[in-house]
Amino acid sequence: MSVRRALALAACGLAGGSVLLSAVVVGKQPARGGGDSEPRPGGSARPAGTGSYWDSNWDRREPLALINLKKKNEETGEEELASRLDHCKAKATRHIFLIRHSQYNLDGRADKDRTLTPLGREQAELTGHRLASLGLKFDQIIHSSMTRATETTEIISKHLPGVKKISTDLLREGAPIEPDPPVSHWKPEAVQYYEDGARIEAAFRNFIHRADAKQEEDSYEIFVCHANVIRYIVCRALQFPPEGWLRLSLNNGSITHLVIRPNGRVALRTLGDTGFMPPDKITRT
Q1: pTM of the prediction?
Q2: Edge-to-edge strand order for the sheet containing 219-225?
């Protein structure tokens, strides 16, 4: 393999062998997380892209990883490869706004009884007003199907007329992964982590990724869901250890802003912002 070819593979961050090659070229350890999971003590698995080094192919949308190099035309060579890579490259930036639902009735026995409190409705109004004041062209609002998230969405959407709303069970609250360090007051059964964790991870993979190559303009999307879900998504998107999700804290009606660049780089603009609320309206329940 020529040096030129080796450098091209290293720059594109192809999962597997090219990750190793990239690490050798720059004199670092190989990046972990090239596969779907990596072994952990006790035999469990941790999602890819949660090691010490950035996994460029964390969303499995790195252009070179989408191309079958064995089918490359040997006669046109580099020209064809460049054309195919360009066809697979994202061009737009995705702005993800993660909204935690407002305060709700904690005494409700069933989900349908856990409706927003009067203060919670005020919080949702403030959050909706804040989002509208940003002057952005929001593409859609995707929300958890749980009552408190649905009601928060309905209030927010009044401030964003014309923005379509989509409900999904994937964003429902749950126990994403056993937290480290553990807490004494909240200890779900192992089966809850097993079931909820798979669903919340599925939500991450389904919704959090770089833009499709066909997307021409930057997008602005709102996700109304729950604290555990948002905290887990933030850790996964930034490739921090997901077990640390419970170290983050989010107020009701808060705004978390993630940016996903065309090259797959992720930035956290704001985490749990409620600076737009009067102090007496801020809660964390």
Answers
A1: 0.80
A2: 164-168, 140-144, 219-225, 94-100, 255-260, 266-273
Task: Give backbone dihedrals phi and psi of 205, rounded to 5 degrees, phi first.
Answer: -65, -30
| Beta strands 266-273 and 219-225, pairing class | unpaired
Q: Report the Cα–Cα distance between both ends of the chain, in Å, rounded.
A: 58
Q: Residue 8 is which amino acid? A: A
User: Can you say whether residue 222 is alpha, beta or left, with left for phi > 0 and alpha for psi between -120 and 50 degrees?
Assistant: beta
- Structural element, H or E, at residue 3: helix 3-12
- CA 3 to chain CA centroid, nearest Å: 36
User: Using one digit for the tens of pLDDT, what is the confidence trace for 41-53?
Assistant: 444 455 655 567 9
- Burial code (b: 16+ CB inside 10 Å, e: under 16) for 172-200 equals bbbbbbbbeeeeeeeeeeeeebeebbebb
Decide if 143 contacts 225 (C-beta within 8 A). Answer: yes
Residues in the chain: 285
CB-facing half-sphere around the CA of 104: CA atoms within 13 A: 22
Summarize pLDDT for 53-106 with one digit per residue, the tens. Answer: 999 999 999 987 777 655 555 555 565 666 777 778 999 999 999 999 999 999
| Cα 7 from chain centroid (whole Å) | 30
Residue 267: strand pairing partners: 259
d(CA 34, CA 139): 32
Q: Is the dihedral of CA 183, 186, 192, 196 positive or negative?
A: negative
For 162, other C-beta atoms within 10 Å of its C-beta total 7
Q: Pick from 90, 201, 222: which is nearest to 156 by CA?
A: 222
